[in-house]
Amino acid sequence: MDFEQTHRDALTEVLRWRRDVRHFRPDPIAEEVIERLRATMDMAPSVGNARPWRVIRVDSPAIRAEVLANFNAARDAAGQGYAGEQAEAYAKLKLQGIDQAPLQLAVFTHRDPAAGHGLGRASMPVTLHQSTAMAIHTLWLAARAENLGLGMVSVLDPKAVERLLNTPPDWEFVAWLCIGTPEFTDDTPLLHRAGWQENLPTTWDVR
Ligand SMILES: Cc1cc2c(cc1C)N(C[C@H](O)[C@H](O)[C@H](O)COP(=O)(O)O)c1[nH]c(=O)[nH]c(=O)c1N2
């Protein structure tokens, strides 16, 4: 398969307009779209082809409410680390859409999956989490291409999420993903707009 300029342009647009979304409309997502997202996430690369990501779709309002309470506690605890103007700015940040997003996924990494037969990770076990991160980013882009937004939430006590979902002991919680139709689209991160952290260019050192 050879790609042309139209493909490159489309990819660039999806990347430019992908955002971490925290404001959602309640419109439900069609099951066939959710199935496409699931299948596209599986296109991600992974160490040894181990595919260590594990995903639980959480529809239960009771579980979502507990996760929101978990978030609020973790958010307040993290807020203790800021002082003065930064503490005021932190208090104003919206860092999740758990109360709004129609589709919510708990994502885990299997700590020692049989798949992949250990290839590529013996000296770098972190590659399992790296693989899950790649799957999340693949899902993030796939969602954007479906005109959906995804918000990644890590302001959580991971052990409490594992207990709540009663997951196997070899699953490690990685992130809570909120997915839905965004209330607005933007080509600039919310944290940049809010003045918390602007986009900084990265330079590539040459040796
Ligand atoms: C590993 C990881 C963990 C988190 C995030 C991202 C990643 C990669 N981000 C989203 C993050 O704030 C966002 O990606 C940056 O601000 C850049 O914005 P865009 O994603 O480009 O819109 C995020 N956002 C948020 O509101 N609450 C959160 O807990 C987290 N946690």
Q: Give the CA-based shape.
A: globular
Q: Approximately how much beta-strand content do the residues carry?
A: 5-15%
Number of domains: 1
Q: Could you name the ranges where pLDDT drops below 50 across 5 or more consecutive residues?
A: none
Integer-rounded radius of gyration: 18 Å
- Can you name the CATH architecture? 3-Layer(aba) Sandwich
Output the number of helix runs: 7
SSE layout:
Elements: H1 5-17, H2 31-41, E1 53-57, H3 61-79, H4 84-92, E2 103-110, H5 127-145, E3 149-153, H6 158-165, E4 171-180, H7 190-193
Antiparallel strand pairs: 1-2, 2-4, 3-4
Helix pairs in contact: 2-5, 3-6
The chain binds ligand FNR.
Catalytic activity: FMNH2 + O2 = dialurate + 5,6-dimethylbenzimidazole + D-erythrose 4-phosphate + H(+)
EC number: 1.13.11.79
Pfam family, one: Nitroreductase
Task: Explain what the structure shows.
The chain is an alpha+beta fold. The protein has one domain: NADH Oxidase. It has 7 helices and 4 strands. It has helices at residues 5-17, 31-41, 61-79, 84-92, 127-145, 158-165, 190-193, and strands spanning 53-57, 103-110, 149-153, 171-180. It has a 4-stranded antiparallel sheet, with helices on both faces. Helix 2 runs antiparallel to helix 5 and helix 3 runs antiparallel to helix 6 (158-165). The longest helix is centred in the middle third of the chain and has 19 residues, at 61-79. Residues 19-20, 22, 95-96, 151-155, 189, 191 line the site of the ligand Cc1cc2c(cc1C)N(C[C@H](O)[C@H](O)[C@H](O)COP(=O)(O)O)c1[nH]c(=O)[nH]c(=O)c1N2.
